[in-house]
């Protein structure tokens, strides 16, 4: 029997020996029972029977309490520990010792529950996984009285430090471990925890913090999956007990679950943010029908999502698929896109192509439209794109492609509605709208604007003599000459038939006259060569005409083409002996009016330009006339 048990037993009997006489004295004085001198044998028998009965009751209560405590102890689990059920009172094990052990176990359970509560609290209240790691580690360091704490998590093939407590980052000598390296890597590889009384004596130890002695190294698990490693260290030998090790090992699963839940929560939040971001980006991209604005916005959005050296958006040419027209770009790389490398691969395979270079990574993402590739998004980055970044880009590509298709469609429709199909210049309807805008602008600035009315002299004669195809080519040639002379801000319109108008903003009538004189002189000096050859009268089919016309329009030298000469000769050679001149010249008559002269009146501006053009024709044609108020145009 232990000394502790003997002392406690002696203490109990002493208390009983003192309390019992005292109790009887009180009862006698209160005359509840008679005094001892007057007791008879029956009284003593009754007294002894009462004492025995009370002792039996007390012993029974004690035995029941002990059995109950023993059952509690046998069912009590702390970590993976189970107390044996072979404890017997007759072995001398004190009931009080058992109670003390149970109390210690309860305190350990409270400690463990406190940590579990803190962990659970952190799971639901931490804003980020980093905050979760820092909170868990700080609580563990505090509860175990450790000098420092570290948490390493697996990233790719390495264990990287993600949280540290009670130690400055500058004091850390190693923050990354390979699997199997050091106690941290070994613990991860073996999936077993380590309780090391002195790490300096362990050959596997690689110093992370100086003066470390005792260390608990526990794998952080989530079910059967190892997420990382938890390290609690002390600068004293054997500073951690087996109970500390078993406690941390027990709750490592809860920590792993908390970390995994935090990761999933962060991932869901990120996905939600990305979806919201893609929704906003799609709204921005699809809000415009202007091609330049859409392409610039697409490039801007990509550069907001990821960090790039350069980003280029190119559209494949409809005639030559190997030619790429760059419509928007960002960064230092101003070179065009060539149909080679990742661009060619993305075009042919219809998926993203990637290549590593000395300067980083190059990505080519195809813009797919109904199984065809309409363009390429070409990106040059320093770092390899993550899966998340690739998903964001792919999510942006779809609405960008749709927006570009709509912009091209809108541009084509707008072109058909505002352009002359033959010459490519703006049409009469668009002229009226544009003139209104220009008048408002120059009137606001109190500036001038001139308008020129151009009429090709004797145009009907050329149509009747050489045919309408020649007339069409003459119209194109006149437009070509005007474009070569006019400034960027000047705008040409086909007013109707063989008439053209030109808006010359911020230009007075005298300066406009100088410009139009140059155009008139170049046109009048130009010799149109058709051919001088007698041809036999032949029949031609509609197909022959179209083939010849197609070849003719593809030739750069339209008027010098042998095919063209032959075709013209055939068209005008209605008899076997009819011939035409091989060259001829055309002239134009020009009328100019100024907006200031008509007090910003649109109708008068047009009317006066037309009168001035008519005046040029009446004065012998091939002239430029500037309208003046004193001119009599009747």
Description:
This protein has 634 residues and is α+β, with helices and mostly antiparallel strands. Among the domains are: 126-267, GAF domain (Beta-Lactamase), CATH 3.30.450; 287-414, Beta-Lactamase, CATH 3.30.450; 428-526 and 585-626, Reverse transcriptase/Diguanylate cyclase domain (Alpha-Beta Plaits, 2-Layer Sandwich), CATH 3.30.70. Helices cover 50% and strands 19% of the residues. It is built from 16 helices and 20 strands. The protein has a six-stranded antiparallel beta sheet with strand order 5-4-3-8-7-6, sandwiched between helices. The chain is elongated and about 170 Å long.
* Approximate strand percentage: 15-25%
What best-fitting shape do the alpha-carbon axes yield?
elongated
Per DSSP E runs of 2 or more residues, the count of β-strands stands at 20
The number of helical runs is: 16
Spatial order of strands in the largest sheet: 5-4-3-8-7-6
CATH fold title of the domain at 126-267: Beta-Lactamase
Name the average pLDDT. Answer: 79
The name of the CATH architecture of the domain at 126-267 is 2-Layer Sandwich
Helix content: 40-55%
Write down the Rg: 50 Å
Largest sheet: 6 strands, antiparallel
End-to-end distance, in Å? 144 Å
CATH superfamily of the domain at 126-267: GAF domain
CATH C-level of the domain at 126-267: Alpha Beta
Query: Low-confidence parts lasting 5 or more residues at pLDDT below 50?
Result: 77-92, 531-565, 567-579
- Structural class estimated from helices and strands: alpha+beta
GO biological process, one term: cell adhesion involved in single-species biofilm formation
Keywords: Membrane, Transmembrane, Transmembrane helix
Domain GGDEF: 447-629
InterPro entries: Diguanylate_Cyclase, GAF, GAF-like_dom_sf, GGDEF_dom, Nucleotide_cyclase, Rev_trsase/Diguanyl_cyclase
């Amino acid at each position: 029997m232990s000394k502790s048990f003997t002392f406690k037993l002696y203490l109990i009997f002493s208390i009983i020996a003192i309390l019992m006489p005292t109790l009887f004295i009180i009862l006698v004085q209160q005359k509840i029972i008679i005094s001892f001198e007057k007791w008879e044998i029956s009284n003593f028998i009754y007294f002894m029977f009462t004492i025995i009965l009370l002792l039996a009751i007390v012993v029974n209560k004690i035995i029941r309490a002990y059995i109950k405590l023993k059952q509690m102890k046998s069912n009590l689990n702390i970590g993976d520990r189970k107390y044996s059920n072979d404890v017997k009172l007759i072995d001398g094990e004190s009931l009080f010792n058992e109670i003390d052990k149970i109390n210690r176990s309860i305190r350990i359970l409270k400690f463990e529950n406190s940590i579990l509560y803190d962990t659970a609290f952190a799971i639901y209240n931490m804003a980020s996984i980093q905050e979760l790691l820092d909170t868990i580690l700080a609580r563990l360091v505090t509860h175990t009285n450790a000098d420092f704490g570290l948490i390493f998590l697996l990233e790719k093939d390495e264990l990287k430090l993600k949280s540290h407590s009670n130690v400055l980052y500058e004091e850390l000598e190693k923050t990354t471990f390979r699997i199997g390296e050091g106690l941290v890597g070994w613990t991860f590889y073996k999936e077993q925890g380590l309780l090391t009384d002195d790490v300096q004596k362990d050959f596997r130890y690689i110093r992370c913090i100086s003066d470390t002695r005792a260390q608990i190294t526990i794998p952080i698990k989530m079910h059967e999956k190892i997420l990382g490693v938890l390290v609690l260290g002390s600068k004293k030998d054997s500073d951690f007990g087996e109970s500390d090790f078993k406690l941390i090992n027990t709750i490592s699963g809860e920590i792993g679950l908390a970390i995994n839940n935090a990761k999933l929560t962060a991932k869901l939040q990120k996905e939600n943010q990305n979806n919201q971001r893609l929704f906003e980006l799609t709204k921005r991209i699809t809000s415009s029908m202007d091609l330049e604005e859409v392409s610039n916005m697409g490039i801007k959005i990509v550069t907001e999502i990821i960090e790039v050296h350069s980003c280029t958006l190119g559209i494949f040419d409809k005639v030559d698929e190997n030619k790429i027209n760059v419509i928007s770009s960002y960064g230092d790389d101003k070179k065009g896109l060539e149909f080679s490398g990742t661009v060619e691969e993305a075009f042919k395979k219809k998926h993203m192509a990637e290549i590593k270079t000395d300067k980083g990574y190059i990505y080519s993402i195809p813009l797919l439209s109904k199984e065809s590739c309409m363009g390429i998004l070409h990106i040059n980055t320093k770092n390899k794109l993550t899966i998340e970044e690739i998903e964001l880009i792919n999510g942006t590509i779809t609405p960008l492609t749709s927006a570009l298709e709509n912009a091209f469609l809108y541009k084509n429709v707008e072109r058909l509605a505002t352009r002359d199909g033959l010459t490519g210049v703006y049409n009469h309807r668009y002229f009226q709208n544009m003139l209104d805008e220009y008048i408002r602008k120059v009137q606001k600035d109190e500036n001038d604007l001139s308008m020129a009315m151009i009429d090709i002299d004797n145009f009907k004669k050329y149509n009747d003599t050489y045919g309408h195809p020649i007339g069409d080519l003459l119209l194109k040639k006149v437009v070509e000459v005007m474009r070569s002379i006019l400034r960027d801000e000047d705008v040409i319109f086909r007013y109707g038939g063989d008439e053209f108008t030109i808006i010359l903003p911020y230009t007075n009538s005298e300066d406009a006259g100088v410009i139009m004189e140059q155009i008139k002189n170049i046109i009048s000096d130009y010799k149109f060569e058709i051919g001088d050859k007698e041809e036999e009268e032949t029949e031609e089919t509609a197909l022959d005409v179209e083939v010849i016309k197609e070849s003719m329009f593809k030739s750069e030298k339209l008027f010098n083409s042998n095919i063209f000469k032959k075709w013209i000769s055939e068209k005008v050679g209605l008899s076997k002996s009819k011939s035409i001149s091989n060259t001829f010249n055309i002239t134009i008559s020009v009328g100019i009016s100024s907006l200031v002269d008509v007090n910003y009146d649109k109708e008068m501006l047009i009317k006066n330009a037309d009168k001035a053009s008519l005046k040029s024709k009446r004065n012998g044609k091939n002239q430029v006339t500037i309208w003046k108020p004193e001119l009599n145009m009747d």
